[in-house]
Design goal:
By secondary structure, the protein is α/β, with parallel strands linked by helices. It is 37% helix and 13% strand. It has one domain. It has 7 helices and 7 strands. The strands form 3 sheets. The protein has a 3-stranded parallel sheet, with helices on both faces. Strands 1-2 form a two-stranded antiparallel sheet. The chain has a two-stranded antiparallel sheet with strand order 4-5. The protein is globular, with a radius of gyration of 18 Å.
């Protein structure tokens, strides 16, 4: 059984009552670790929220130019790119309760762009039912990235939720209730349809 919870006072927004199945939570489009690639049959469904694939052209050129400089930015954690457009949450109460960093470390951004190159190549191999969510007012990740994602997935089942008023962090923003409802419904449906599928593989993974 799966439960999705949301709210400013809840510090553990995801909970599961599990059996052989489970819920894997990944942040920042990091959904391509070895375990996910090696055991695709264990993934019953995916929810992808405002995932960066290319970013805006001027951002790409700027970051790539920085990456060519003869510096290891990992040794300079204070070398950052300012967040010129401020918070990723439009809801004033949630924005106050969830302050964000004023800038992006350059080393983190260059690593993200390298990851995006790798992820784009893998997208057609994704076969699991997928729900893609994006806020139309997102000023961090362009809407075009989610449009490209839905056009490139290899899944036969792709659902979309475009939020008219939300910024980047849609799980905390003004339409968070719609996000919670959509995720709960989507995962409940597809986890139920998966039934015990994959339980044998899961047992093998747990065996010594």
């Amino acid at each position: 059984m799966f439960r999705f919870q949301s709210g400013s006072g809840n510090k553990t927004p995801i909970s599961t009552i599990g059996d052989a199945r489970g819920v894997l939570c990944l942040h920042g489009m990091t959904g391509t670790p070895f375990e996910v690639r090696a055991f695709p049959d264990l993934i019953a469904a995916l929810v992808i929220i405002a995932a960066p694939l290319r970013m805006r052209r001027f951002q790409t050129r700027g970051v790539r130019a920085l990456g060519r400089l003869p510096f290891d930015f990992r040794s300079y954690p204070f070398a950052c790119i300012p967040k010129l457009k401020g918070s990723d949450i439009s809801d004033a109460e949630m924005r106050a309760a969830n302050p964000s960093l004023p800038a992006f470390p350059i080393s983190a951004v260059t690593s993200l762009f390298d990851l995006m190159d790798e992820v784009r190549a893998d997208i057609p191999s994704v076969r699991a039912p997928t729900l893609v969510i994006h806020g139309r007012q997102d000023h961090t990740v362009p809407m075009d990235d989610s449009l490209e994602l839905t056009g490139s997935l290899g899944s036969d089942i792709i659902e979309r939720l475009w939020l008219e008023r939300s910024f980047h962090i849609v799980t905390l923003d003004v339409e968070r209730s719609a996000v919670s409802t959509a995720i709960t419904g989507f995962l409940s449906k597809h986890l139920a349809s998966a039934g015990g599928a994959g339980s044998g593989e899961a047992d093998k993974m747990r065996s010594p």
